[in-house]
Amino acid sequence: MSSLFRSEEMCLVQLFFQTESAHNCISELGHLGLVQFKDLNPSATAFQRRFVKEVKKCEEMERILRYLEKEMVKSNIEIAATKEKEMVPCARDVLELESTFEKLEQELREINRNHATLRQNLIELMDIDSLLRMTEDFFEEVLEINFSFFSFNFIILVCIHILNYFVAGVIKQERFPAFEKVLWRLFHGNFVLRHAEIQATEELQARGAVKKDVFIIFVQGDHVREKIRKVCEGFRASLYSCPKTLYERKQMSNSVMTQMEDLRMILRRTEEYRAGVLTRAAEHVQEWGSKVKKMKAIYYTLNLCNIDITQKLIVAEIWCPVSDLAVVQNALIKGSEQSGSSVTPVLNRIQTQQTPPTFNRTNTFTEGFQAIIDAYGVGTYQEINPAPCTIVTFPFLFAVMFGDCGHGLVMTLFAVWVISQAESLRKWKNEVTDVVIGGRYIILLMGMFSIYTGLIYNDCFSKSFNIFGSSWCVRPMFHPHGPWQYVLYYHHLQLNPSVPGVYSGDPYVFGIDPVWNIASNKLSFLNSFKMKMSVILGVSHMLFGVTLSLVNFVHFRKFQDIFLQFVPQLIFMLSLFGYLIFLILYKWCITLRSETAPSILLLFINMMLFDYQSEHVLLYGGQVWIHALLKAALYSWLYSVFQIMTDAVMLYRKGFRSSWKDNVICFLLQVSMGDIFVYQAIHTVEFCLGCISNTASYLRLWALSLAHAELSEVLWRMVLQVGLKISSGMGSLMLVVLFAAFAVLTVTILLVMEGLSAFLHALRLHWVEFQNKFYEGSGYKFTPLSFDSLLKTQQ
C-alpha cells in the first residue's frame, strides 16, 4: 500500500565490478529496468568520455539501419517483427555487426547508383524514340502537301528542310513557353518550329519521368543552327542527332527499340536482386536495431562510471528501490557469470543527504492517471501520491459536468473498443492515436461515471426515465373538492404538495424525479440544485486535500506544521465553508415556503456583519449563538497561533531549550521576528483568499453541467424532434437524414468538444484547487536504464 499511495523508498548504492564483466552486468540491469545510474563525471564533456568512440560507432550503425528501413519502405518490403528478448552482443561481436552493416550499405548504394544510371539511359532512349516518331510524322506531312497552293516563302522553308538544316531535341514541358519566346525574339520568326508532348505512359510514370516536349527547328545555315544549339543548352534541353534519310531513321529506331528491351530486362533483374537483398535484411533489421540501441545505452551508461588506474575495476553509483536490492544483486551475479568473471560484483549501500528520485510503480491501468499528476509536477520524494485518489475523483468530477447516461454509454463503448484494438491502433503511429491509447482507461472510467451521474440527473439525450414512477400526481389537482378553479386562471399547472395526493411524501428512488423534465421551471430548479451541489463537492474535495496534507506532515514528522498549519486551515474551512454545506443540507431537509425561505447568501453575509435585525433571515433557532461560537473559535485559534509563535521566539531568546521547542523554532533561527510575521501574514492571506477563489472555481461544475444539458436539449428539439413530427410521404427519408445530422452533431459537439472542455476543467480543478493543498511536486523523476522503455520510445 505504501508504494501505491507514496513513492518507493530509494537508496544510493555503490557498485564495483570488473571491466570484462561490465558489459554483461549492465545488460542484465537494463533488462531489469530498476536502476538509475548517477553521472560520476559531471565536469567531463561528451568527447572526453571513455567510451565515446563506441557510442559513435553505434550512432553510425543506427544511421545505416535508418537508411535500410527507408529503402525497405520505398520498396514496399515488410519488416519482420523483433523477437521477444534477444541477447545484447558482446564487445567482440560489435565489429562483426559493424562490418555486416557497412557491406550492406555499400552494396545497396552501388545497386541504387547502377539502377539510377540504367533508368536514366532508358528514359533517354524513350525520348529518342518519341523524337524519331514525331519527326517522321512531320516529314510525311510535308511530302503530302500540294505546293501550288503555297507562297514562295513556304517553298523556301521546304527547301531548307530538304537541305536538312534542323535541330531536334527534348525539353521539359514547363520550360517550353519561355524557350519558344526567346527563339522568336532572337530570330524574328526566321525558322520553323514543331513540337509535341510526349505521352506519359505507365512505364514513364513508374520510372519517375517528368512531362516533356519533343521539338524540331528548321533554320537557314549552320551559323543560325549553332546559335539555336546554345539557346537549347541554356534551357537544359537534350539535343539528339536525327538521321537525314528515311532508311537511316528506321534503322536508328529499330536499334533504339532493341536497346530499350535490353535495358528493361537489366533493370528488372537489378530490381529483383535489390529486392532480394532488402528482403533478406528485413528479416533481421528490427533485431539489429534493438541490439544497436541496447549497445549504445550500455556504452552511454559506462561513460557515467569511473574506471580505476589499473583499468580493471569499474565503479558506479546507482539509485534503486530498497525493496529490489536483492533482485539487483541477483542480476549482477548473473551478468558476472555470463562473462566468466571470477569476482562477484559488490554492492555497497551508502548514506547520502541528496534527494532521491521519485519512483511510482504503475501498470497499464494506472499509468494514464500517473501521467496526469506528473504533467503538473513530479512529486517530492516520499510525499503522498494523488494518483490513486485521482482514479476516482477525476472521472467523477468530469462526469458531474458531462452527466448524460446516453453520452456516457457511447463514450464507454468507444473506450472498450479502443482497449480491445489497442495493439492494432499502435501501428498507426500518430499523435492522436497515441494519446487515445494512453488514456483509454481514463476514457472508460469517464464514460462509466457519466452514466452514473446521468442516472442521478435522470438525463439521457435530454430525455428522462420513469423507471420507479414519479412521486407527483396531477389528478388530485382536478378533484371536485380540490383547487381545480386555480387551473382556470393560470397558463401553467402548479402542483401544490399541500393538496392530499399530489405528493406521495416519498422522494424518487434514485436521482431526480422525471416530472421535472416537463416542468416549466425545470431550468430554475436544476440551476439551484447544481449550483449547491457544486459547492458541496468543491468544499469536500478541498477538505480532502487538506486532510492529505496531515498524512504528509505525520510521515515527514513535521508535527509543528500540524498545529501551526493543518489545524488552522481545517478550522478556517470548517467554520466557513463547512458551515455553508451544513446550511445547504439543512435547508434541503426541512419544508419551507418559497416566499419565506431565507437566502443562504444573506445568512452568510449577516453572519460576518453581525446583522440579525430581521427575523426572517434566520433558518433555525439558536442560529445567532452558533454564528458567534464559530467566529469566536476562528479568532481565538488565530490568536493562539500568534501567541505560540511569539512565546517560542521569546523563549529561544532567553536561552530556554527543549526537544519539542527546538522543532518548533528551527525555522526561526535564521530570520527576524518581523520576517516571521510578514511571512505568516502573506501565507494566511493567500490561503484565505485561495479558499474563497477555489470554492468559486468549483462552480464550473454547475456551469458546464447546465451547458451540456441545454445543448443536448437544443439538439433534440431543433434536429431530431423535427424529423419525428414530419407526417408526409417523405417523412421516413427526412427522419433518416435528420437522425444522421443529430448523430454527427452529438459526436462532434457534445462528445468531442464538450468532452474535451469538461476534461480540461476537471484537470484544472485537480491541479490548482485540489493538489495545492498538499502536493508540492518539486521532485525529479526516476529514469532507470530500461531496454523495454528505450525500445518503446524509439519505435
Automatic annotation (TrEMBL):
<dbReference type="Pfam" id="PF01496">
    <property type="entry name" value="V_ATPase_I"/>
</dbReference>
<comment type="similarity">
    <text>Belongs to the V-ATPase 116 kDa subunit family.</text>
</comment>
<comment type="function">
    <text>Essential component of the vacuolar proton pump (V-ATPase), a multimeric enzyme that catalyzes the translocation of protons across the membranes. Required for assembly and activity of the V-ATPase.</text>
</comment>
<dbReference type="GO" id="GO:0005886">
    <property type="term" value="C:plasma membrane"/>
</dbReference>
<dbReference type="InterPro" id="IPR026028">
    <property type="entry name" value="V-type_ATPase_116kDa_su_euka"/>
</dbReference>
<dbReference type="InterPro" id="IPR002490">
    <property type="entry name" value="V-ATPase_116kDa_su"/>
</dbReference>
<feature type="transmembrane region" description="Helical">
    <location>
        <begin position="439"/>
        <end position="457"/>
    </location>
</feature>
<protein>
    <recommendedName>
        <fullName>V-type proton ATPase subunit a</fullName>
    </recommendedName>
</protein>
<keyword id="KW-0175">Coiled coil</keyword>
<feature type="transmembrane region" description="Helical">
    <location>
        <begin position="396"/>
        <end position="419"/>
    </location>
</feature>
<feature type="transmembrane region" description="Helical">
    <location>
        <begin position="562"/>
        <end position="585"/>
    </location>
</feature>
<keyword id="KW-0406">Ion transport</keyword>
<feature type="transmembrane region" description="Helical">
    <location>
        <begin position="597"/>
        <end position="614"/>
    </location>
</feature>
<keyword id="KW-0813">Transport</keyword>
<dbReference type="GO" id="GO:0007035">
    <property type="term" value="P:vacuolar acidification"/>
</dbReference>
<feature type="transmembrane region" description="Helical">
    <location>
        <begin position="664"/>
        <end position="682"/>
    </location>
</feature>
<dbReference type="GO" id="GO:0051117">
    <property type="term" value="F:ATPase binding"/>
</dbReference>
<feature type="coiled-coil region">
    <location>
        <begin position="58"/>
        <end position="128"/>
    </location>
</feature>
<keyword id="KW-0812">Transmembrane</keyword>
<keyword id="KW-1133">Transmembrane helix</keyword>
<feature type="transmembrane region" description="Helical">
    <location>
        <begin position="535"/>
        <end position="556"/>
    </location>
</feature>
<dbReference type="GO" id="GO:0046961">
    <property type="term" value="F:proton-transporting ATPase activity, rotational mechanism"/>
</dbReference>
<keyword id="KW-0472">Membrane</keyword>
<dbReference type="GO" id="GO:0000220">
    <property type="term" value="C:vacuolar proton-transporting V-type ATPase, V0 domain"/>
</dbReference>
<feature type="transmembrane region" description="Helical">
    <location>
        <begin position="149"/>
        <end position="171"/>
    </location>
</feature>
<feature type="transmembrane region" description="Helical">
    <location>
        <begin position="732"/>
        <end position="753"/>
    </location>
</feature>
<keyword id="KW-0375">Hydrogen ion transport</keyword>
